[in-house]
Write a structure and sequence with these properties.
single chain, 298 residues, alpha+beta, six-stranded antiparallel barrel, 19% strand
Length: 298
Amino acid sequence: MDWTRGPTIGRGSFASVFVATSRHSGDIFAIKSTELSQSQSLQREQKILSTLISPSIVTYIGYTITSENNKFMYNLLLEYVSSGTLSDAIHDGRLEESAIEFYTHQILQGLEYIHSSGVAHCDVKGQNILISGGGAKLADFGCAKWINPATKNDDVAATIGGTPMFMALEVARGEEQGFPADIWALGCTIIEMATGESPWPNFSDPVSVLYRIGFSREIPEFPDFLFDQARDFLGKCLRRDPKERWTAKELLKHPFLWESNFREKHILELNSNSPTSILDQGVWNSIEEPESLDATSQ
């Protein structure tokens, strides 16, 4: 596919994300890129995403290797979701509990799907959840891993990673990072939605946060204004013993989410005309200061 690289829309530890457009069809998509010589992590992400197909997961399109400015670049092609991240949605303050329930249900659907596929996300947080007209999608699988990598012929073992504020205690201690760690991070993300703040708002130093999570007996503070069912749901996510945390499948049956199917249908109807796909040419035209660069696939 021949395409033109547009503006940068995100930067991470291992790669940058750009908007891109196909020179033939005009389709819009996202490109996650890094130099080929440093693309080990991005190639593992490609292997994982290429096995996942779900409306609750950002859609994988393919990958290319391009020659740009005398450098070889490894590029992961992904669905472009125009409405930003969950963190963007809560930037102006906390979300209403009905919205928290709606997004939590969809995040859980994504987690139940990837967990049943043997994949742990390992970096669940608002910034890694994209919001479309249809709801929430899990994105950024840069830290993801197969829990039993031997079954997937994975020759690159993923190390423990993620964002300290959202790490479970077993991750902070460097012991393990599996499905229960994603559930802990979901609980932290609910607190993020409910308060508009970090789950550990009094800490900014990653080392201090990791020590507090791993070696104290504390858990993030539950917002006292949440209803009892929401607080009970949080309690099932934020148990310090990973063996005692509920699974995604169990949490989908929790009473906190009983009305989410009705709300999802209602919100989907309200957003039926919203631009959400890689075909959203109008959004592409509205982006200012394009940084265009033609890419030549190898």
